[in-house]
Task: structure prediction
Amino acid sequence: MDHDAKLSARNIYKEYRQTRLKIGESSANAQYIHSQASIYFLLLTDFFHLQTIPATTTDADHIQLAIRSAIQLLSKESFINDHGSDLADALDYYEELERELTPYARRQNDLQQVLQGCLYLPTRCLIIKTLVRYRSLDFDLILDCLLKTMKKLPTKQSLYLSDVIYAMIEEQPAHARRIRYKLTELRILPSLVLRLTVNFCTDDYVDFLNGVFNSQPTWFLQQSYTSGTSFAKIKTSLMNALSCHPISQQQLGTESSDAHMMATLRALCGLVAFFGVKLVEQETRLCLTLLANGPSEISNDEVPGKKKRKELINIITQLIQSGSSEMPLLLMAYFQTDEIGQVEDMVRTILRMQVPIPKLGLFEMQKLFKVVDSYI
Result:
């Protein structure tokens, strides 16, 4: 936009702000906004309303209604698509004007408040994408401002926050891993972290999940109801990786591939135990076969799942007789002496995860081990 148009919009905006104090908001809006054709001026007033309405209203529903009725341009997708550069430039200009018009003692974080107001608009993702596109160097500043709004947002807008940050990553995918790490360190927005993992960081499922499960995963367990599809995709990827691992004694894997298999099985255990991801019979058979033929370090992992009783007994017998690990023998001893609590402690210690273990499953395992005892 040319300099004269910007200067004119600046002067009108300053008049509007002064008139608003004298005659009230409704009269000032009727005098200036409803009769004004200047795009730049209308953008400035849109930013003003985005900043001031949430700051002066406590009811979330009223905020949304007030913002949507006051906004002239930023609620229109077609306008944003056609005037993206003007939008970003006007926001810079707005921040400059507010610093000039607002006494130092009353100054707020203008950008943070404007972005908070954007979350009440249906065009929120498009607005943020546009800002990131034309103010790419301000990516981290915009992100930090959005994250600082979390404590002030009602539940619905908190969900919108995840969508807005995801839109930022869609615009600049190179930031995906770094932002995921930041959110993980802060232990916030778990559904967004999962979404970024599945769509932008697909090559490190094993390392990421083990890292989360190995720390304090409580925050990550608070997933949205839509996360099931993402977990299913991760499970499929993990099972595909396991299916490529040698499963016979004649085709033993390398030390590094065995270590990766161990980590993959551990991540799979976390998905099953924490999120209720289901394994079909074929997947369970593969996991147990890998355990039976794998290195001693992983012979003690527990992979839940349904299995025919006879085949389970055969595999458990093979694990005990293989001598590759003492853990199956310890399990049998604990089950024979009804030390179910010791079994739970051992599994959690081995996995280094405080996973929930259904008692019914342990009792079924106890029955199997008692049968196995007669085979040895």
About this structure: The chain has two domains: 3-171, 228-373. DSSP finds 20 helices and no strands in the chain. Residues 228-373 form one domain.
